[in-house]
Amino acid sequence: MNIAIIGGGPGGLYLAALMKQLDPAHEITVWERNASDDTFGFGVVFSDETLGGIENADTTVARAMARRFARWTDIDIHYRGESHTVGGQGFAAMSRKELLRLLQERCRDLGVTLRFSTLAPDTARLCASYDLVVGADGVNSAVRAAHADVFRPSLDRRRSKYMWLGTDRVFEAFQFFIKQTEWGVVQVHGYPYSDTGSTFIVEMHEDVWRRAGFDATEGAGFAPGASDEQAVARVRELFADELGGHQVFANNSKWLNFTTVRNERWHHGNLVLIGDAAHTAHFSIGSGTKLAMEDALALAACLHEHPDTEGALAAYETERRPVVESTQRAAQGSLEWFENIGMYVHQEPTQFCFNLLTRSRRITYDNLRTRDPEFADRVDMAFAAAQGLDGVAPAMFQPYRLGGLELRNRVIVSPMDMYSAVDGVPGDFHLVHLGSKAMGGAGLVMTEMVCVSPEGRITPGCTGLWNDEQRESWRRIVSFVHERGTARIGLQLGHSGRKGSTRLMWEGMDDPLPEGNWEVVGPSPLPYGPGSAVPRELNRADLDRITADFVAAARRGAEAGFDLLELHCAHGYLLSSFLSPIANHRTDEYGGPLENRLRFPLEVFDAVREAWPAERPLIVRVSATDWVPDGNTEHDAVEIARAFIAHGADAIDVSSGQVTKDERPAFGRSYQTPFADRIRHEVAAATGAAVIAVGAIASYDDVNSLLLAGRADLCAVGRTHLYDPHWTLHAAAEQEYRGPGAEWPVQFRAGGRKPPASRTDAVRPRLSLLRPGPADQAVHQRWIPPREPAPVS
C-alpha cells in the first residue's frame, strides 16, 4: 500500500512503524507541521494492558519504552491537610519527548519517510494519490474539520480550566493535591515520568478560575509555542508548599478547556481518523497517547487481516468504537466529578478519597479491596463510624431508617410494570412476583405503578387502587410480605397521562390500543411521540378530580398496609409531564417557568401527604433529565427535588428520561447515578432526606461502591431482580456475609451457601517453596529513580 499519514504524534508514528513491520513493501509518508524536536507536554502514562499490546506488536519499541519508564503503584491524595495513600494500581510513564524520539528512530530504521516542519498536501489530493490517508493530526484536526460533513463531529467544550505544566520535583507516586482556596477548589494531577521530572496539571472550575483572577490573560494573543507566564508565576505561588522549593516549568502552557471529541464516523472511502482526531478522553483517567497507540495497533492489524481497504477500515471502526466509547463514558464521569468537586469537600477524608478513586465507576470497592485491602478496611470503618453502625457488614447490608421506617438493608426492588392485572386487580401472579422478591433478601420491595383511576392506566393490564376489590387483593400481597420475611413493601402511585391507553408491553410498547381505548389527558395537547394519541388538555375541574383520585388511592393503600408510598413524578406519566417543558406548553399558572410547572405535582403531593399516615414515609420518583434539548436537565432536577423535600418528601428516587420518544439517553453501567449524587450533595444531605439511586446498577459491587462514596443512601435494582429474585441473598453469600441485613427464610437456609463447582470443589496442593512477603510490599511501590554510583576514590 501507499500510505499518507497526516500528523507525526505517537499515534501516526506508531502506525507507520507497525505497517512497515507487517510489510516492508508499504510506502509510507508522515507529514508533521512541527519540527522533529518540538514537543508539547511532559509525561505520558500507560496501563499494563496497553503495554502488553505494544510488547506483542513491536518488541523493539516495547523494550525501548521499558528502559525509560518510571513505574509505581501508589496514589497519594492530599486533602484537608492529610495525605492518604492507596496502592496496587500499577502505572508506567515516560517523557513524551523521549517517546516521540524513539518512535521517530524506529520509523527511520524501517524506511518510513518523515517530513517535519511541513504541512501535508490537501486531503483530496492525497486521497486521489494514495491507497490510504490517515488523519492523526490531534484534537484540532484539520482533516476532521475539512470533512466535517462526512465525519459529523461533535465537540463538547467543558467548563473547567486546566494548564499542562512540569516540575523538577520527582514525585514517588501519582499525586492529587486538592487545595481549598478562598476562591474555591483547585486541584493538581501530578505524576513522575523520569528521574528528573514530573507532570503537573493544574485544574479548576471556570468560576473558580475567574474569581481567582486567572482570567487576566483571557483573550491574550500568545505566539506559537509561548506560555502564559503570568499564570505560571501565580501557580508557582499558589502551590509553593506542594512544590517544596522545586520549580514549575512551562511548555506551550496556556489555560485550556477540555474538549471531548466524538465523531459519528471515523472513516470515509480511503480516509480514516485515529487518536485525538477521532476521539478524546479526559486526562484524569489516562492518556490520549495510550488511546492513539491502541488505535494504531488495531488499524494496522485490520489492514493486514482484510484484503480491501473499505473492509479493513470498517473492521477497525467496529472493533475500536466500543472500546473508545466505554473509555469516554468513564472519562465523562471523571471529568464531571472534577468539575463538581466543590460538592464533595464536606466529606470525611477517607470517604472523599474513596469517592475520588471511584469517580469514573470503572474502579469499584471490590477493585480497591483486591489492590489495597488495608485501604478498603479503612473505607468500611469510616462509613460505619459516620453512621454509628457495625463496621463488619458490607455497606449494602447496613440498616437504614427512612422516615419512620426501619429497613434491614439498603437494597430496593425497583418498581417494574408487569401488565398482568385484570380490571386493575392484582392476582396470584403479583403475589408470586412480589412475594418472591420480598423473600429474596431486599430491604424494600416496590410495587409497579399502581394507577389511581381506570383512565390513569398505561395498559389494560395495569394494576389499580380505585376500588375496594383492588385494595383487598393488595392487602393479601402485603400481608404475605410481612408474614414471610423481613422486607418492607412500598406502593408506587401514578397516572399514565398522555402515555395511557396503549398495548401490553410485549404487544408493542407505547403503541395505542387498536380498540376499546380510553381518552388520554395531559397538561397540553401534545402526543408522547409519532403515532401516539393526542391528549386532551386538562382543565381546573379535571385537576381537582385527579387529585381526589390520588388521595382516595393513597387512603386505600394505607388501609392495605403498605409501609411506604412513592408518588410517581417520572418517566413522562401525568405528573412528570407537568414538570417537563417538552410536554407542558400551558400558558396558565401551571405552565411556563419551573415554579409553575411544579405547581400541580406539589398540589397532588400535599393532598397525598395529608391522607397518608404521618409515620409512614412518602417519597417521590423524578426524571432527572429529559435527555433532549430544551427539556429538563440535572439542574432542574435539583430544584424539583428541593421543592418536594421542602413539602415533606422523605426521599427522592432519581431516575431519568422516558418523557419523549425523541430522547437520546447516554446508556451505560450505573448511568443515572450521577444525578442522584448531585441531588444528594446539593439538596438532600443538608435536609436529612434520603436519595435513592437507580439505573443499570447490576452488581453488589456497584451498590457498595455507590453507598461508600456517598452518592446515594439506598439503591434500587430492577432487571437484576428479574434475572435472580434472590439476588440480594446471593450477594450476601458471595460476600460471605451472615447477619441481620440478609436473613434467609428458614425454609431456604439449607441453600444459603454457594454450591460447590468444579473450581471450588478441588483442594489445591501447595506448589510454592517460599510464601509471598507481606502484602504491603506488593501493594505499595514508589518511584525511586536509580542513583548513579558514587565515584571510587
TrEMBL record:
Residues 3-328 form the FAD-binding domain. It comes from the Bacteria. CDD domains: OYE_YqiM_FMN. InterPro entries: Aldolase_TIM, FAD-bd, FAD/NAD-bd_sf, OxRdtase_FMN_N, YqjM-like. One of its GO terms (molecular function) is NADPH dehydrogenase activity. Residues 749-793 are annotated as: Disordered. Residues 396-732 form the NADH:flavin oxidoreductase/NADH oxidase N-terminal domain. NCBIfam families: PRK08255.1. PANTHER family: BLR3436 PROTEIN, NADPH DEHYDROGENASE C23G7.10C-RELATED. This is NADPH dehydrogenase C23G7.10c.
